[in-house]
Amino acid sequence: MTTTLYTSDHEWLAIDGDVATVGITDYAQQQLGDVVFVELPKIGRALKKAEAAAVVESVKAASDVYAPISGEVLETNEALAAEPALVNSDAQGAAWFFKIKIADKSELGGLMDEAAYKAHTA
Amino acid sequence: MLARDDKDSLKRTPLYDLHVSLGGKMVPFAGYDMPVQYPAGVLKEHLQTRASAGLFDVSHMGQIALRPKSGKVEDAARALERLGPQDIVAIAPGRQRYAQFTNADGGILDDLMVANFGDHLFLVVNAACKEADEAHLRANLSGDCVIESLADRALIALQGPKAEAALAKFCAAAPSMKFMDAGPHEVAGLNCFVSRSGYTGEDGFEISVPAADAERLAKTLLENPDVMPIGLGARDSLRLEAGLCLYGHDIDTATTPVEAALEWSVQKSRRSGGARAGGFPGTEAILAHFDHGAARRRVGLRAEGRAPVREGALLFADSAGGEAIGKVTSGGFGPSLNAPVAMGYVPTALSALGTKLFAEVRGQRLPLTVAAMPFVKNTYKR
User: For residue B125, what are the β-bridge partners?
Assistant: First the structure.
């Protein structure tokens, strides 16, 4: 069973067992505008919660994407290199950024559920 | 950029309500609350302008009339030549020219457009500089000219391959105008000043219109399905692809016209040996750059990868180590090229086309090549 949680910095993470798939929210992509480049973390990199893990560049600006939890990067979404605009068309689906092996499940406690995130961006 | 708290102090152009009604995302720019993009987004707005036509509100820019006290426009032109290195006297009635105001060191105080309207000169200057420019003109030219701020006029740019057809319905003169023609013309029955120019590299027009009529004119032009409203975001990416300087970024008080690769804008008559050589602020420094070369130069830069290289990125001659040799002054993604483009300053010895350089982006050195500008071929109607 997958649970989706959100950060106040507009990342989403879909949790399946001890693996989380991370991306940016649809709200975030709307704020950014047209995405033209995504820089992904290296596979195997050990990320610390709140550390800059990826970069998403719109026509106008570069924005950091932060690790929502600590853990090791297992996989990155190569499709984003060829088609960064996927972030605009399917931010919370096909345009996931990376998968991470969750190091400490207690870190999930501080994240928002969908209702809380909706209130956060309202 | 202003902080959000200052939003209330921002000025509005006569088209503010129209921008909001069209869904413009408003941001502070040069003291004005301006649309950075509309719902279509920067990418589509950019490509629309290249393929069809875009309408830009550039009312934040300054418009100034320079009226000769003698009644002879050449006296105003001669007076204006005291403030910059261009041949203003040679601008024929009905023509416009790109110019700069320079300082005592040869640096650029502002860049501007100067049109000869027959009995007076018409100037368009940058928004952020307009008050200083006006004070500069008053301090230096008041003996010869009446300096009139045309703050009661808006300025609309219509740019792109379908701009001529879109404007021709309302302005009989439009189709016969050539690049840099300028003069008073009626547009939709309104008293406008029209020039065939712009800031996108595309064919197009800039239309100065009384502020009270600006919204009506903009709405009239936007009724054409070929014309879309375009925000400042796409204006910036368009001018970057066109290799055009943005004041305060690519040129400023510490860059001379030669360093900025703007030699073409300084006519021979004002250079060493010319009929009216010198006589402008910074003559010594600027003519020395013409005669002996400058140590650094603005160049175009193309990256190999897809990562945009933005303003402020340091440039290096090598992939590792060494001191920075220059800096990017404008950079981003070029939607027409589907690739990053940038411009910046490098030592003249490293300014030749094809020179391999590196830009530091997030701690990595990305390979770049010095490339010809404009990055996208301009389509001016000569």
Answer: B62, B112
